[in-house]
Amino acid sequence: MKTPAATPVPTTASAAGPIRVGVAAGAPGVNMLDAIRRGEKVTGYTHKEVAGEKHVLSIHDFNLYYGKNHALHDINMHIAHGKVSAMIGPSGCGKSTLLRSINRMNDLVDGVRVAGEIRLNGSNIFDRSTDVISLRRRVGMVFQKPNPFPMSIFENVAYPLRIVGEGRRSRLEEAAEKALRSAALWDEVKDRLKGSALGLSGGQQQRLCIARSIVGEPEMLLMDEPCSALDPIATLKIEELITQIAGRYTVVIVTHNMQQASRVSDYTAFMYLGRLVEYGPTAKIFQAPALTETEQYVTGRFG
Amino acid sequence: MNPGQASISPPHSNSARRRSLGDAALLWAARGSGVLILLMLAALLFVLVRASVPAMQTFGVGFLVTTEWRPNEREVPARGPDGRVIIEDGETVMRTLPAEFGAGPVIWGTMMTSLIALVVAVPLALGAALFIVRVAPKLRIAAPLSFLIEFLASIPSIAYGMWGLFVLAPFLQSVVEPAIARALGDVPGFGWMFTQTVVLADGPTRRPLPLTGRDALCGGLILAIMILPIITAISRDVLKNVPKGQIEGTLALGATWWQSCWGMLKYSRSGLFGAVMLGLARAAGETMAVAMVIGNNNQIEFSPFAPAQTMASLLANEFREASGGLYQSSLLYVALILLVMSLAFNVVARWLVVGKGARTAAAH
Amino acid sequence: MLLAHPRVRTLLSSAMFALCAGFSVVIVAVLGLVTWFLVSRGWAAMSLDLFTKLPTEDLNNPGGLKHAILGTGQLLLMAGLVGVPMGMLAGVYLSEYSNDSRIVGPVRFTADVLTGVPSIVVGILGYELLVRPLGNFNGWAGAFALAFIMIPIVARTTEEMLRLVPDSYRAGSLALGATKSQTITRVVLPAATGSVVTGVMLAMARVAGETAPLLFTALGSRFVTFNPSEPFPSLTVQIYQYATGPYQGQKELAWAGILVLISLLFVLNLAIRAVTSRSIRSRVGT
């Protein structure tokens, strides 16, 4: 069977680098997902609206290997500034792996190899001269399971400032209040800032983790399925929070909940087996996707 | 790179430099203490070997089996080639034997007391461990029972020594040993238990053994009490790790309680053997309690009612008074043997316990 | 075969069950026997003089054990000042830097093995290293021997306790841009504080009851001293000397001293239990 030929792809150059826009799957009747499963090289479909945005993060031909396992294949993506971008796809599609590459948390895993570039505001984060510690300050992360430290609520939020040497009580208190307000948690905890963070409910703990990750004014916020360990009411609160802080922060959120993605995000990327399949405005992805494969996924016909 | 855009901090900013300094400092301090641990073992071996060299050169490996331990010189009648005593001018000619050292008696003493300790402690410990793992949870007494047994371990050695010296030894002397003597003394084949070898001027002879209660038996019993907690605790942990499926499997086939226990024991036999070895290592190295009740007699006797000496008690009793290079060096040679023996037991025991039972925990 | 008969099997099982229960009772009974004797005998000999008086020349009215108690306190302090930090650092190395080098495995194994070295051998090491060169028995050698025993214990317990700290804390701290050392000192160690302290107390308890390593290092003394360069008194050695001596008055003091010793260790063990459950509880978040 012939490999679907890639039609000549018109490129739009922008300050952030060339993006490929155009149809990829090729001949009608050929299922891209089958091609992926067969291990063939494919190019994901990126809607043209993505190119129009100012970009904070550019991912170029990014590949990641866990030992012999080729986990991410030729990812090309641009994350829009000040918008919420969601990554969806079935389990094992690589969305969390890609997310964790952005703040180089994958460095902590044995046997990980990468190829390609991820540029944060123009600088390749995998450059030898990159200070990973600094990178992680500029790119915040919220984990699936809330992980507040076994300290007081105040100390949790103050932690990112303390580790860069900020010791002035007034500065810490000011920044903590601001972050807790942004995380919609201030009113609930303002009278018990000295209490243990572990005494909060799950949803409150996650909002605390969000506050902790934005107190250092990061350029981007990564969220790895932040609501999957929470009840529906707490989930709703966090979704409201995300829409509130968007604009001020660039948010990339990984979620397995498609309704959530359609509610909170401006752009959505559909991934499958380590490849980017389709990426574009959320409304289009869910209502008028370019690829039938995407339509099948978002309407729940597989995965 | 976009002009005017915040970039990722280059690594040579002030706070970054301070932070990497802190990182390096902790790393090297941590590495250093790891190396320190290795050096500690090396130092032990090196120092003991170096100090034993004179004794090793004089006695060689035969030291381990030589049975004479005599720090003082001794005068014995000189004997001619025909074996008869030489007499000159009506007086027996005497020969001065130099001090002689051999570790045979203390190695024997260590083995005998450790053996007695194991024979007493292992069944008790295994039985209690089985009880704690299989029965006690249902009665909710597993935790208190474990706590009580571990409390035995927190009693210091001299406390056991004093109890042994002032309670157990007199008890053995006045009640237990005479009773055994009455029961077995005239039974043929047991005579050796109640006599000892005494060296007189014209050679060794057998004499009745005075039962003082301060003997290998007392030492062994005290050791048994002292190693009970460690064998019980480790056996309990090993038995707890037997998969429930194993136990339920045997019960489903109609096995009795004891048969399923026996299955558990067989399943974890290497871990249990390791527990026993750890107990043995502890027994061999135990000093104070043994030194106070063992009778301090540096001779090989087969009777448990005879006073004896272990390597540890020998060191405790004689090290300070040891004068002269060869005496001290021989004691250090004994210390080296004790060290190597306990290291060997420990290594084998840990390989058995960790290897077969908790390898997943160790590898985490 | 006899065992083919089901009745026999059941009988055997019941008998073994009774035996196992019996053995447990025997162990507890022995414990009770020994403890009761030591406590009652010690209590009979106890008086306030024990803590306030110094040894007298009168061998039948030997005064008190104040010198020995002070001596043990100082020895523990000196040993702890060196042994605890070194041991904790080694524990941090084994837990947090376990991928650092191929020596990590051997270090861990060696630490385990070192905990089984007979304490009298450690005393001999102290003699060779610190008594011989200095020319006389001294407190430094005693503290050295005790620290030598402490370090592997503290290292292994610290490692075990640090391993129990969930990885999510480490990941969270690193994701916030903390360095590894900041993560260890600000998040991981504080999270494990209770249990690390437990390990330290365990080591202290073990070392407080040791006699053999002090016999040829600190030797013992009948005077209060704060100078570690001379022979140094300790509770354990003093008890041993009095107990094995010929004077009844001294033996009485020895009994009282034993009571002090086992009371101290009992309290330490209780505290250890209390702290352990509390720290486990705090880690789970209740």
Question: What does it look like?
Answer:
The complex is a heterotrimer of chains A (303), B (364) and C (286). With 303 residues, chain A is α/β, with parallel strands linked by helices. Chain A is built from twelve helices and 13 strands. Chain A has helices at 32-37, 49-52, 95-102, 132-138, 153-162, 169-182, 186-189, 202-214, 232-245, 258-264, 282-287, 292-298; strands at residues 11-12, 19-20, 45-46, 55-66, 69-80, 84-88, 112-120, 123-124, 139-142, 220-224, 250-254, 267-272, 275-281. The two termini of chain A are 26 Å apart. Mean pLDDT of chain A is 85; it is low at 1-29. Chain B has 364 residues and is mainly alpha-helical. Chain B folds into two domains: 14-63; 104-363, MetI-like fold, CATH 1.10.3720. In chain B, the strands form three sheets. A two-stranded antiparallel sheet of chain B has the order 1-4. Chain B has a two-stranded antiparallel ribbon with strand order 2-3. Chain B has a two-stranded antiparallel ribbon with strand order 5-6. Mean pLDDT of chain B is 84; it is low at 1-12 and 357-364. Chain C has 286 residues and is mainly α. Chain C has two domains: 2-45; 50-284, Orthogonal Bundle (MetI-like fold). The longest helix of chain C is centred in the first third of the chain and has 40 residues, at 6-45. In chain C, helix 4 (104-114) crosses helix 6 (139-163) and helix 7 packs antiparallel against helix 8 (180-191).
Key features of this structure:
heterotrimer, A: 303 residues, alpha/beta, Rossmann fold, 7-stranded mixed β-sheet, 4-stranded antiparallel β-sheet, 12 helices, 33% helix, globular, disordered N terminus, C: 286 residues, mainly alpha, MetI-like fold, 2 domains, disordered C terminus
Strand ordering within the main sheet of chain A: 3-13-12-6-11-10-9
Number of helices of chain A: 12
Label the CATH architecture of the largest domain in chain B.
Answer: Orthogonal Bundle
**Quick one: biggest sheet of chain B?**
2 strands, antiparallel
Order of helices and strands of chain B: HEEEEHHHEEHHHHHHHH
Superfamily (CATH H level) name of chain A: P-loop containing nucleotide triphosphate hydrolases
Name the assembly state.
Answer: heterotrimer
Instruction: Compute the CA-based radius of gyration of chain A.
Output: 20 Å
> How would the global form of chain A be characterised?
globular
The tally of strands of chain A reads: 13
Annotated CATH topology of chain A: Rossmann fold
Q: Helix tally of chain B?
A: 12
Helical percent range of chain A? 25-40%
**What structural class do you assign from the helix and strand content of chain B?**
mainly alpha
